[in-house]
Specification:
Helix 5 links the parallel strand 3 and strand 4. Strands 1, 2, 3, 4, 5, 6, 7 and 8 form an eight-stranded parallel beta sheet that branches. This protein has one domain: Alpha-Beta Barrel (TIM Barrel), CATH 3.20.20.70. By secondary structure, it is α/β, with parallel strands linked by helices. The longest helix is centred in the N-terminal third of the chain and has 19 residues. It contains 13 helices and eight strands. Bound molecules: S-adenosyl-L-homocysteine. S-adenosyl-L-homocysteine binds next to loops.
Length: 355
């Protein structure tokens, strides 16, 4: 599928033709990654952050937010809950927090790998190649680093680099792959200033980067950020023509999930929390029926979960309490799918190994 066709689909509004898109994505999902839905337990280990991302509620500039950093034992306890729930992976996520030292994270990763059968995914932002290498050696399996938008000017406006540094997530992703990580990236849909062409380029960049995991969610405005619904003073590139601005709608989120499945058939694609935030369980289900094959239940203890406030309402959906876990499983079975067993490693790796 080329850029022109992707843009046509992104602009498509005819329900019956869109049904064809959903069916094509769902068929490719079944043929390439099967009916298993893998559950990854998300642990939000720190909300400290040194960055000033214009879209994100835990940006350094948000002084209204109380900050936390979990203890090593606290994170390990959550990892053991993941095992009890039957998950194959934990995803450790945080703001970009130098207080999570290279040594501390390495110790945490190696303890989880020694004490549990879990795969470990890290999503700790832009870190030094030295840290990333040490964590891989400690046993980390996967790294998630969304490039957020492939439009360089928009990225720089929304995700300013630390003073004296360059933020090049694409280069970091290539470095991670070279270290032997399964690599994941992704983008937000409907960022202010994002055009349909930008979004098509995001999807093509997923393919070019040869990703194992691709996370897509609609941009959800946070009131305590420069992109708050009422604030028009936020940093952005010159506004596109109104007809070129991508809406941050649920529907647009599904289109990008479906097109991503078509363009990257072997990727693990979550039905993301951002998608589920829009209209709850129903949107998670639709994501799974339109290309996605992964769900990330949230294992963060409630007192921290509410403070990992990257966008509104995030702490309320897809929670891995016993009850929440049961609902997620029932939802998966209700659409004729199976809950995955084992680590749910990248099907791309198996395919590559089999060649
Ligand atoms: N600090 C890490 C983890 C980021 S939080 C990093 O920078 O990689 C995980 C993801 O949440 C981000 O990559 C971004 O895509 C998403 N996110 C942040 N703010 C958001 C918002 N307002 N709406 C939707 N998604 C958002």
């Amino acid at each position: 599928m080329d850029r022109t066709e992707i843009i046509e689909w992104l602009r498509e509004e005819d329900e019956s033709r869109l049904r064809g898109l959903w069916e094509r994505a769902d068929r490719l999902r079944r043929e390439n990654v099967g009916d298993e839905v893998h559950l990854r337990g998300l642990i939000e280990i720190s909300n400290h952050c040194v960055r000033q991302c214009a879209y994100c509620g835990i940006r350094a500039g948000n002084q209204a937010l109380e900050r936390y950093r979990m203890s090593l034992d606290g994170v390990l306890a959550c990892a053991h809950v993941a095992v009890e729930r039957g998950y194959g992976t934990v995803v450790l996520q945080s703001g970009e927090d130098p207080g999570l030292t290279g040594e501390w994270v390495a110790e945490l990763v190696s303890r989880i790998r020694r004490e549990t059968p879990l795969a470990v995914t890290l999503s700790l932002g832009e870190r030094s190649l030295g840290d990333l290498r040490a964590w891989r050696e400690a046993g980390a399996d996967r790294y998630l680093l969304k490039f957020e938008t492939s439009n360089r000017a928009l990225y720089d406006a929304l995700h300013p680099p630390l003073p004296g540094t360059v933020s090049d997530r694409v280069a970091l992703l290539r470095g991670l792959r070279g270290m032997g990580y399964e690599t994941g990236s992704g983008a937000m849909v409907g960022l202010p200033g994002q055009t349909f062409e930008d979004l098509a380029n995001d999807i093509l960049l997923f393919r070019e980067l040869d990703l194992d995991m691709i996370g897509i969610g609609p941009f959800i405005p946070h009131p305590l950020t420069p992109l708050a619904p009422a604030a028009n003073a936020g940093p952005r590139t010159p506004d596109p023509e109104p007809t070129d601005q991508v809406p941050n709608s649920e529907q647009m989120g599904y289109k990008v999930v479906a097109l991503t499945r078509i363009v990257c058939p072997l990727a693990n694609i979550p039905s993301t929390t951002a998608l589920a935030t829009v209209s709850g369980d129903a949107s998670r289900q639709l994501g799974l029926e339109r290309g996605a094959n992964v769900v990330m239940p949230n294992l963060t203890p409630p007192e921290y979960r509410v403070k990992y406030d990257i966008y509104p309402s995030k702490g309320r959906v897809q929670v891995a309490t016993e009850e929440g876990d049961r609902l997620i499983r029932e939802g998966i079975e209700a659409i004729g799918r199976k809950v995955g067993v084992g680590r749910g490693d990248s099907p791309r790796r198996h395919a590559a190994g089999a060649r």
